[in-house]
User: What shape does this take?
Amino acid sequence: MIRARNLSKFYGAKRALDRVSFEIDDGETVGFLGLNGAGKTTALRILACDLRPTGGTVEVGGIDAVTEPHEVRKRIGFLPENPPIYADMIVADYLRFAGQLRQMTRAEIAKRLPDVLGITNLDDVATEVIGTLSHGYRQRVGVAQAIIHQPKFLILDEPTRGLDPVQIVDMRNLIHDLKQNHTVLISSHILSEISQTCDRLLVLGRGTLLGVGTENELAGHVSEIRQITVTIRAPSGGDPYRATKSDDSGEAGGAEGKKSDKDADVGAEIKKVLAEVDGVKEVGDPYEQGGGLQFWLETTKDCRAEVSRAVVGAKLDLLKLDYARSEIENTFIRLVGGSSDASN
Assistant: This one.
């Protein structure tokens, strides 16, 4: 277990952390969320015994990280935001070196190295020079050095930073594998990655802890209102998108005017179907999106299933249904309030 009590850190007169307290149980995967300058990196460096706190206490596995940092380091693997790799070294040689730094014997390193290369999918580049590898592979080397000594706790600071979409998926899969044998603490600005990877969240803002809990717990604490978008194929013979737009031309009548009246009726009927769904508070006017008409719904609960049944029951074609913004993104923005400072 990791336990922090009233953790504080000042850089001169500048406050980076202010009496932050939290616990992480064995086997958990926890995400640190926060804007730039929220204090995430400072907190992670203190937990990794890379930085001493100004005040408060930190225990890792029952060991005081301030008075016994060397013992704590044996139990922690740390991937900093900028991985501590040597570009001119061969991958396998570097990992052996990392094991030696952690006081592993040659026999222990020889036994552990194939497992680490396999876990991080570095087998094919084990004899390559690190500097010739892609950014994604260098990140994997950083993870490999963090787990070479089989630590119980693993701290990853922005592990997906600078990765392309394919590499992000690969890193996400790697983290899922690591969760099986490690307690993991992750810092990331990619909210969807935190949401998909972590069991629980710690939200930091201006050096203070703003919220702790699962995504649903934090969302329920902040607000019961959710936003949903629903995309529906326009029924043949009608275009409700045109019906919701004001007629700026000032022209009326004729065949075009009659068509707009008919379209308005179609749009009103679709809005009526959506508005009658239990939990829907407000229905916005539709707009063209992806070959269909997208309606914005403000709701008091997650009623996507009810909306889906209502649309199909009205013999309409449902093209897409999702949160207007991800739940974790809404929660994050509301908690942090869009504020940040220059601390880490």
Q: What stands out?
A: The first strand starts at residue 2 and ends at 11. The chain has two domains: 2-223+332-336, 226-327. The chain is about 35% helix and 25% strand.
